[in-house]
Specification:
It holds the Pfam family DHDPS. This protein has helices spanning 25-37, 57-71, 86-99, 116-127, 140-143, 149-158, 173-181, 194-199, 214-225, 229-249, 255-265, 284-309; strands at residues 7-11, 42-45, 76-80, 103-106, 134-138, 162-167, 187-190, 204-207. It has 310 residues and is of the alpha/beta class. It has a single domain (7-226), classed as Aldolase class I (TIM Barrel), CATH 3.20.20.
């Protein structure tokens, strides 16, 4: 496999029409164009931020087909093909490859808390039908499954498709452990703590911030890759402040709702979230105030990026 994924890969929201009943493909294209204009090396669709659990199979196909055709090879396209039922994950993965996607991002089967052998068999089944790269996704907080470094290494040494992982366990040592256990076969994408992760060997960053600050998401990785740590830290301070405001207002997982609200603030309306997630308007005055605070931070961040580039 010749693919080489590095840098910032934003997990895009899924734009819906104003009534929430349909996928808005034009808004999706607009959001993709913004990522390309911001020099993002790639994007991920149908991830957690993309509300993959809230779309039908027909809508999945529409989202993937629209994205691949519109991108037309300008950047990399990864697709989330996670499902708790192995045959469905296999089918989603095979279909994504047939649509022309560059890679897949896949959580282990969730809810049932599978054993390590069951996780291994799950990925084995997928690798038997696809040849494109797979990015494992370790997020025990949403999946209730934690993939230790030894299991990740075993998967990579067994299947050549598995060469990446989004590590979101918040255990920063995992970055080093995965690289060492896999003998460097697995490249780590930070899901949290991007600066520290890069310092331990990460080469990419999977994040929701690209939905409203794509330039910052891209540039922070450029600075980290070129060892301009202080520049990266100055950007990350703003990202951390934004993240804190969102987490305070939505302690479980507010990135879908706030990412959509903030994209609209930046001139890219994408509709609202689908149930059971809380719509932005239902957050009332508290939500409005938080978005206003974040808007100020985003404006300051824009100025910082100009200063750093001068």
């Amino acid at each position: 496999m010749k693919e080489n994924f590095v840098g910032s890969y934003g997990v895009l929201v899924t734009p819906f029409t104003d009534d929430g009943k349909s996928v808005d493909t034009q808004k999706l294209k607009n959001l993709i164009d913004w990522q390309i204009k911001s020099k993002a090396p790639g994007i991920i669709i149908l991830g957690t931020t993309g509300e993959f659990l809230a779309v039908s199979d027909e809508e999945r196909d529409l989202i993937i087909e629209t994205t691949v055709k519109h991108v037309a090879g300008r950047i990399k396209v990864l697709v989330g093909t996670t499902n708790a039922f192995t045959p469905t994950a296999v089918r989603y993965s095979k279909q994504a490859q047939e649509f022309g996607c560059d890679g897949l991002m896949i959580l282990p089967p969730y809810y049932y808390t599978p054993t390590q052998d069951e996780i291994y068999q799950y990925y084995k089944s997928i690798c038997e039908v696809v040849s494109i790269p797979i990015m494992l996704y370790n997020n025990p907080f949403t999946s209730n499954v934690d993939m230790p470094a030894k299991l990740v290494a075993k998967l990579a040494k067994s299947f050549e498709q598995i060469r990446y992982i989004k590590e979101a366990s918040q255990d920063i040592a995992r970055v080093r452990d995965v690289i060492e256990e896999s003998d460097g076969l697995v490249k780590v994408f930070a899901g949290e703590r991007v600066v520290e992760s890069y310092q331990l060997g990460a080469t990419g960053y999977v994040n929701p911030y690209a939905n409203y600050i794509p330039e910052a998401s891209t540039i922070i990785c450029t600075y980290l890759a070129s060892n301009k740590i202080e520049n990266a830290k100055s950007i990350n301070r703003y990202i951390a402040k934004i993240d804190h405001i969102i987490a305070e207002g939505h302690p479980t997982y507010g990135h879908q709702c706030y990412s959509k609200a903030l994209a609209a603030v930046r001139g890219y309306p994408v509709g609202d979230v689908r149930p059971p997630l809380t719509k932005f308007k239902e957050l009332g005055e508290d939500g409005r105030i938080r978005v206003e605070k974040i808007k100020i931070l985003m404006d300051e961040l824009d100025q910082l990026l100009l200063t750093l580039a001068s």
